[in-house]
Amino acid sequence: MKPTHITGEDRGKLMLFALSTCGWCKKTKALLDKLGVAYDYIYVDLLKGNEKSNVVKQVENWNPRCSFPTLVINEKKCIVGFKEDEIRKELGK
After folding, report:
1. What is the pTM of this model?
2. 13-48 b/e with 16+ CB inside 10 Å = b?
3. Tens of pLDDT, residues 37-64
4. How far is it, in rounded angstroms, from Cα 9 to Cα 52?
5. What is the distance between the terminal CA atoms of the chain, rounded to a whole angstrom?
6. Distance CA 73, CA 87 (A)
7. pLDDT exceeding 90 applies to what percent of the chain?
8. Which of 41, 54, 56, 79 could be a cystine partner for 71, CB 3.0 to 4.6 Å?
């Protein structure tokens, strides 16, 4: 599955792995929207079969517990959970 892209200010490559039913994931997505930054996201729970397995492996590389939300910034930094202060700091917002 191709991630959904949200347009906005370029603050690097932001990839949000989320669940469509997760309140913390919704809060993280809303924060990114409020900050006006560009990012991509995938709702992992809506994937099926090999596609889901492949994305779960990607998440586990960053977050072995495979919990959500998992936000990967510039393929260097990973923030697990809704951590508004840390997200704002990393994005300079």
Report:
1. 0.95
2. ebbbbbbeebeebeebbebbeebebebebbbbeeee
3. 999 999 999 999 999 999 999 999 999 9
4. 29
5. 30
6. 9
7. 97
8. 79
pLDDT tens-digit map of 64-75: 999 999 999 999
Both tokens assigned to 57: 């492996």
Measured CA distances, 73 to 28, 44, 54, 87 (Å)? 13, 18, 19, 9
- Whether the per-residue pLDDT at 35 is higher than 80: the answer is yes
Kindly state the tokens that stand for 18. Answer: 């989320």
Q: Tokens for 47? A: 């994937």
Task: Please report the domains of the chain, with CATH numbers, ordered by start residue.
Answer: 4-91 (3.40.30.10)
Question: HSE of 90 in the Cβ direction (CA atoms, 13 Å)?
Answer: 19
* Dist. CA 83–CA 41, nearest whole Å: 17
Residue 9 is encoded by which pair of tokens? 């200010």
